[in-house]
Amino acid sequence: LHKDDIKAQVDAEVDKAVVNGYPYRRLSLHGTASPKMFDGRAEIQDSNIVFTFNGTINTSDENPTYKFTLDLKGADLHRLNLSSDDIRVSGVITSDLTGQSINDINGKIGVRDVVIIKNDKRYVIDSLVCESVKKENLTHISIESTILAGQIDGTIAPGDLPEMLKEHFAHYFTLQGMQQARSLKPEVFTF
């Protein structure tokens, strides 16, 4: 029996779990789990974080899949020892992605009803949806939100996109505080 062959049905109610020095309270897990996969429902009802997760995360080498909805009702990142700043967040993430790395990812991920409060300043994102389709050497990436929409089609690897955009815009604008983009291989793309 190999550890990757182990699969278990999980029905757990955890009163307290300490992570990063913070004692999380009232966590429940219901589903199927193996060393590289969880398929089911997870909830936490703590005074500093409340969320519900429904779906599958499979990090296996053969077929990595991230198909889930995470409804984060609220999290105080400072009190959870995840940030030294006063940051609170809430929102819903919906994912339907497959792929082993950023460069071969296929599918959609979206966030909606996002509220980020940092030092009492409120930032709101109504919705943002990103889609990536990779077929052979061609990539289609689209982004759509209430304030921004666009797409890129071409031979670019998604992991190179931030550097490619820096290099592209550096031809037209002086970007203060930005490091020089690293030299990339020639790409063919359209906006």
List the helices and strands and how they pair.
Elements: E1 8-19, E2 22-34, E3 37-45, E4 49-58, E5 65-76, E6 87-98, E7 106-118, E8 121-135, E9 138-145, E10 149-154, H1 161-170, E11 189-190
Antiparallel strand pairs: 1-2, 2-3, 3-4, 4-5, 5-6, 6-7, 7-8, 8-9, 9-10, 10-11
Description:
The chain has 191 residues and is mostly beta strands. It is 5% helix and 59% strand. It is built from one helix and eleven strands, in the order ββββββββββαβ. An eleven-stranded antiparallel β-sheet has the order 1-2-3-4-5-6-7-8-9-10-11, with no helix packed on it.
Features:
eleven-stranded antiparallel sheet; single chain; 191 residues; 1 helix; 11 strands; mainly beta
Helix-strand string: EEEEEEEEEEHE
Q: What value does the average pLDDT take? A: 88
Assign a percent range to the helix content: under 10%
Approximate strand percentage = over 45%
Compute the number of strand runs: 11
- Unreliable residue runs: none
Indicate the radius of gyration in whole angstroms: 20 Å
Compute the number of helices. Answer: 1
Biggest sheet, spatial arrangement of strands: 1-2-3-4-5-6-7-8-9-10-11
Report the principal-axis shape. Answer: globular
Distance from N terminus to C terminus (CA atoms, Å) equals 51 Å
Question: Which structural class matches the secondary elements?
Answer: mainly beta
**Biggest sheet features:** 11 strands, antiparallel
